[in-house]
Design goal:
2 domains; 14 helices; Aspartate Aminotransferase, domain 1; 418 residues; alpha/beta; 40% helix; Aspartate Aminotransferase, domain 2; 15% strand; seven-stranded mixed beta sheet; four-stranded mixed beta sheet
Length: 418
């Protein structure tokens, strides 16, 4: 069989909806300034779909620094990978500032969060080592573990946030590495980006008293939003010192581009010299680095942004709960609204929200959630207002009445283009 022929028989779990979904439910175009209100298909919608937690992506001070850096340096400098010709004092300054902020000895910049996480796992563990991981870990973690297993390594998964099962997997891993001579890497998340619940970092760190393992935490959604200073979810639990490797991205609270990993100086230097995705990739362009320095400065010195975020979060989540909506176990800004229904019903709900209520939020369906569950994922930010919250809560109250009346019931996926 021609390798291209088989894709016509299996378009993939999401690709199967391409004909009816592209441009509306999937790959939608949000246009205009990055704000709570953006244009979608020629109409202004209240946008709850961007992980711009602190409103920094389009903050005037950030825009000014970004523009000045682009004018001075262009987007090409520095040329080449960091190891060969792409090293600058600004890259080192950003790494030092990040390490200082998260209270680690050193940090290493990464071009992409997704690619970076895969490469961290690939670099740290070999076929003698065991990875223990949460069942709801982000796709980048899962892909890194898949590569680890493909290379002959072992991975033990524990049910989401189930500490008893986590300990059971650590027991199994300990027995295995006692024979292989390898080590154990436990990977979890600070804030789980879909459902918004927190990884039980305090309980996992406590297990270090019984087992010999290292912890890698993906805190993409916790960095800048959680903890007294925005350091992250480990700070929220008071266990930052117990986290061996702190990973995060600039694409969430910092509203930028790139990522970093921080930890012990020897370990970070090992990653600096062994992460293939960075060794063979062009260095982050100077405007992105200078822009990240400005964003980090604002995260550290403008707590009012985080305070405003949490004001919006509490108002939105309490308002939705008061209207009877199920928000799961979120303890973070991530606000999932769980509704019983199928994919076809989900499309009708989203069309109603966008066309009639002028609200844009992401729709999450199977295989990310179970087949009989619809999740509307709302992301509050400090750029939103309490008026935005009131409007949205009232709109969802009408949505609730429509659900009770069976308005969205269907077995056929809606096509907005038909």
């Amino acid at each position: 069989m021609d390798i291209f022929d088989k894709i016509n028989k299996n378009r993939g779990p999401l690709g199967q909806y391409q004909q009816v979904a592209h441009g509306y439910f999937m790959f939608p175009k949000l246009e205009g300034e990055i704000n709570p209100r953006m244009m979608f298909r020629g109409k202004e919608l209240l946008n709850w779909s961007l992980n711009n937690y602190l409103g920094l992506a389009n903050h005037p001070e950030v825009r000014k620094v970004d523009a000045e850096a682009a004018k001075e340096w262009g987007m090409g400098y520095p040329m080449g990978a960091r190891m060969m010709s792409g090293q600058t004092s600004k890259h080192e300054e950003l790494e030092n500032n990040l390490a200082d902020f998260v209270e680690k000895e050193d940090a290493f910049l990464l071009n992409y969060g997704y690619q970076g996480m895969i490469s961290i796992i690939q670099s740290l563990v070999n076929r003698h080592d065991v990875v223990v991981f949460d069942s709801e870990s982000h796709a980048c973690i899962m892909d890194g573990i898949w590569l680890h297993k493909a290379a002959g390594g072992m991975g033990f998964m524990f049910q989401h946030n189930d500490i008893e099962k986590c300990e059971l997997m650590l027991e199994r891993a300990t027995k295995l590495v006692s024979q292989s001579g390898g080590g154990i890497l436990l990977i979890t998340e600070g804030v789980f980006g879909m459902a918004g619940d927190l990884g039980k970092l305090n309980e996992i760190v406590a297990l270090k008293q019984k087992y010999n393992f290292r912890i890698l935490v993906d805190d993409a959604h916790g960095f800048g939003t959680m903890g007294a200073t925005g350091q992250g979810t480990a700070q929220h639990f008071g266990v930052q010192a117990g986290i061996d490797l702190h990973f995060s991205t600039f694409a969430k609270a910092m509203g930028g581009f790139g990522a970093f990993v921080a930890g012990n100086e020897d370990v970070v230097n090992f990653l600096r010299y062994n992460m293939r995705s960075q060794t063979f990739a062009k260095s982050l362009p100077m405007p992105m680095v200078i822009g990240a320095l400005k964003r980090l400065e604002m995260v550290k010195t403008m707590p009012e942004l985080r305070e405003k975020l949490w004001t919006i979060v509490h108002a939105l989540q309490s308002g939705l709960k008061a209207k009877g909506f199920n928000l799961g176990n979120t303890n973070s800004p991530v606000t999932p609204v769980f509704i019983n229904g199928n994919v076809a019903e989900a499309t009708n709900i989203v069309i109603d929200l966008r066309e009639n209520f002028r609200i844009f939020c992401s729709m999450v369906v199977y295989p990310v959630v179970p087949k009989d569950v619809i999740m509307l994922r709302i992301i509050p930010t400090s750029a939103h207002s309490l008026e935005d919250v009131t409007y949205t809560v009232n709109a969802f109250a009408e949505l609730s009445e429509n659900l009770k009346a069976g308005k969205y019931k269907s077995d056929k996926i809606a096509s907005f283009f038909s």
